[in-house]
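Researcher: Go.
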Amino acid sequence: MHMTARIGSVLLLAALLAVVGCTRSPEASRGRYLSRADGYFDRQRLPEAIIEYMNVLRIEPGHAHSITRVAIAHFEIGQLGLAFPFLLKAKELDPANVEVRTRVHAGHHAHGHTREAEAFIPYTDSALIDRAAAEGFQVLAITNHDTLTMSPRLADDARQRGILLLPGAEATIEGRHVLLYNFDVPLSAIGTFERLRRFKTPDWLVVAAHPFFPAPISLGSRLREELDVFDAIELSHFYTPAVDFNRKAVALARETGLPLLGCSDSHLTRQLGTTYSLLDAAPTVDCVISAIRSGRVQVVSRPLRLHEMVSIGAQLMVGELRQRVRRRTPEPWPPAPLHSPLGPP
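Model: Structure:
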């Protein structure tokens, strides 16, 4: 009798362990996490939904539904930096997903230069578009100095790579650098801040470029004097934790309510992507400009290491000096073809 009872107890315990083991299987756990996550998402309890979807992804990293929902939840909360990698992955998994496509056009490279305007730059406009597309940017502005680098061919080339090309230039106004976007008058006609005010329309975007960097081309105190004409302030990639000329720009943005626009001001391949902006905007020029103006923008940036900053600065100085020497030397004919060293990312 006792033996029978013991055997029964053992069998019952084994059955219970089997049930517990089944309920703790990865598939069962994933199902519970997913059910809770969808419930939270539907009730707009997005932080809780993110936690549960991430639990699903720990069990099944490629779970498309969870990746998409995490992307959308981060985006709706305003955590654009966290949303961006999930949006890119969700787009890769389901390119036709409308919910993803309307949000993924967020990565904005707003300040880049190319060889067409400055000969020491190692890449062409087309190569910059290729690289931006490879790195996942959806909005790109080529802002050469006092030159509009924009054409139907370039715009179409960018569009085929999934990029909106925003017309722009880094204009010299009364000796100071100012980023202009979507302007419709010749740059040579502007020249002064007074003319900039006169020409500017609601379709334009005017950004203070690296305003407090120690150079005569930076706006410095003029930014406060001309503040009414600016829509945003640039946060430049060129800083370290100890050496940071962006601090005054950040303080002024907080004081005035003007948005910060993260930019790499790239002249070299390795500057691309060090600092950029994420936008809550549809992929059109009007929507992008409206998003920046209204502050629906988030800066994504990492400080340079000191040796990176020194190396980049030295390379830029040498390049500019060589360009000045070339301007004094007659160009050979025929000119050498342009070759881009960017290559695959």
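Model: The two ends are 76 Å apart (CA to CA).
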